[in-house]
Amino acid sequence: MTNRILLDKRLFQITLERLCHQLIENYDDFRNTAIIGVQPRGVFLANRLHARLEELVGKTVTFGKLDATFYRDDFRRKNKQLEAKVTDIDFSIDDMRIILVDDVLYTGRTIRAAMDALMAFGRPGHVELLTLINRRFNRELPIQPDYVGQTVDTIEDVAVKVQWLDEGSEDCVILEKQHA
Amino acid sequence: MSQLSTKHLIGIKDLTKQDIELVLNTAATFKEVINRPIKKVPTLRDITIANLFFENSTRTRISFELAQKRLSADVVNFSSSSSSVKKGETLLDTVNNILAMKVDMVVMRHPSPGAPWFLAKHINANILNAGDGTHEHPTQALLDAYSMQERIGSLEGRNILIVGDIMHSRVALSNIFCLKKLGANVKLCGPPTLIPKYITELGVELEFNIDKALAWCDVANVLRIQLERQNTRFFPSLREYALYYGVNKKRLDRLDKQITVMHPGPINRGVELSSDVADSEHAIILEQVENGVAVRMAAMYLLAGRD
Fold it and tell me: Rounded CA gap, B216 and B204, in Å?
């Protein structure tokens, strides 16, 4: 299999727009609500959604970044040590409605770690999960997203890559065959 | 991503610039962690760490222990005053006995220079030097560098002064290695009797006039006069030391700029540092203590995570 484009620039834009409107349906003016991007790559998506939501709602929406490195279950089990990124949650999350945002939901382990990390900041009222891509056949934990850009049914040796304009490439999602 | 190039943290001398930057960057993320409502992360929950203190210490020991607890490691403490060392057990036997109880990392302070290096040669656990005699005190140098960077930004090309008892100070030696690797200019100041003869080989400059030295620097790291390490007298009296090398408000007021003053503690108030400076906005002494926990968390996290 060669690389295949799953979402091109135009579809990508439409998907983001739809996710924003789905959030507005449920959260109205985002009172007592925060969007929190999961480091490292969920922050790109969270940034984009956050900017667009503020435009659409016409109000400021609370925004944070969360790094779950210290909560991961694969510390000392991987060959490569992971680099911790910035966590920036300068508000109390007690009783807030939290929307966790990540780019790809795969095994579910990152989100498990992110939820644990989140609880170090207080006790949120409720937490929902938004992901751009849901690889639903590869889950290792009972974690499901509440908002999904696109669901992909892939086998394990295919990588799903989300590329961002902010990184210097074009917005798109690519399916990539891993070299064995 | 990169990892530490060494399995042990025995001295700054063995670290590369990348290692130092890795520790400092990781420390920044841990500083954010220890300012959360819940200051603890589960990262090292399957790691057991032994703190072996063969020499007295309050802040380093508490700092290490707090850092270990914030990382959820299991901790056992040992101090030589209440142990079988008094019965004549050798260092290697003591440590091997502790390791037989399945300990993954050893944090050790020892009065003999090279003791942690000796251990590292003979045992398998990660060794973290918490001060070995007059040799090195790597985590202190790392936390000093972190605190300097926090105050003045990158240390590349900046002027850092170390004042006081350079000869007996492991903090001075570790600081010199660390600051030079980060690209800073380092000058030493103190009584000639307390400056080691060949110290300039390390690429540092000397200045015996404290006022000139202070006028030159961006940061002054003032060391403690270590009365317990001085069997012979290296200067006539503490009063004379304070007069010639003490950092006080009058000296700082004479400068045409604001410099940052640091001290590794414990301070002999009125000797190397006057109270009005130690408690002023020039001093970042308590920041150093806070950063110490974050830097030690980073060091232990990176050592434990190495394959």
Answer: 14
How far is CA A105 from each of CA A144, A151, A161, B9, rounded to the nearest angstrom?
Answer: 8, 10, 12, 37
Tens-place pLDDT, residues B240-288: 999 999 999 999 999 999 999 999 989 999 999 999 999 999 999 999 9
B239 an active-site residue? no
Residue B90 to chain A, least CA–CA distance (Å): 32
Residues B160-215: tens digit of each pLDDT = 999 999 998 999 999 999 999 999 999 999 999 999 999 999 999 999 999 999 99
Residue A121: closest CA among chain B residues belongs to which residue?
B37
Q: Across the interface, do B38 and A67 touch by the CB < 8 Å criterion?
A: no
Q: Which element (helix H / strand E) includes A30?
A: none
Q: Cα separation of A148 and B161, whole Å?
A: 57
B137 and B295 in contact (C-beta within 8 Å)? no
ipTM: 0.81
Residue A85 with chain B: CB contacts under 8 Å: 29
**Integer Cα distance of B47 and B84 in angstroms:** 25
CA distance A83 to A77: 15
Q: Which residues of B touch A (CB under 8 A)?
A: 1, 3, 25-26, 29-30, 32-33, 36-38, 40-43, 46, 71, 301-302, 304-307
Q: Which residue has the tokens 């680099």?
A: A83
Burial class (CB in 10 A: 0-12, 13-18, 19+), A171: buried
